[in-house]
Design a protein that fits this description.
alpha+beta; 3-stranded antiparallel sheet; 9 strands; globular
């Protein structure tokens, strides 16, 4: 894992445009090289359902949690932040192999702020790279 590459703040729907690179652990999105995606959304399927599905309003993605994270109670309806490796799986939901997950449910403006953060990151950091 190359931690010099930033985790891109994205909406799930943007990940459909990510493409593999010659490196097995890296992807590219609009010319930006990345290994990890940073997403936020609502768990529409949690521990009780046997799999973890995140919905951010633009699309859904499956989350693969390590044993360390599975000790926690990640339940349907929680609003969470996840960072992890994006995995394309033909004929299945795309997946994030989660490196970090945080329950943001108690934060009152979490969704509105996240939308603004993703838009700002795109305008400040990603758009100049995409335009080149």
């Amino acid at each position: 894992m190359d931690y010099t590459l930033a985790a891109l703040k994205l909406f799930c729907g943007q990940l459909q445009y990510a493409r593999p690179t010659s490196s097995p652990s890296a992807m590219t999105l609009g010319g930006i090289l990345f290994q990890r995606a940073w997403l936020q959304g609502v768990l529409v399927s949690g521990q009780d359902e046997g799999c973890y599905i995140l919905d951010d309003g633009t699309d859904v993605i499956e989350l693969q949690l390590s044993n360390e994270f599975q000790r926690e109670q990640w339940k349907k309806g929680m609003y969470v932040m996840v960072i992890g490796v994006y995995v394309v799986r033909p004929e299945e939901l795309p997946m994030i192999k989660v490196h970090k997950i945080v329950d943001l449910s108690p934060q009152p403006d979490r969704e509105a702020m996240w939308d603004l953060e993703v838009i700002e990151a795109y305008k400040v950091f990603y758009q100049p790279s995409v335009a080149e």
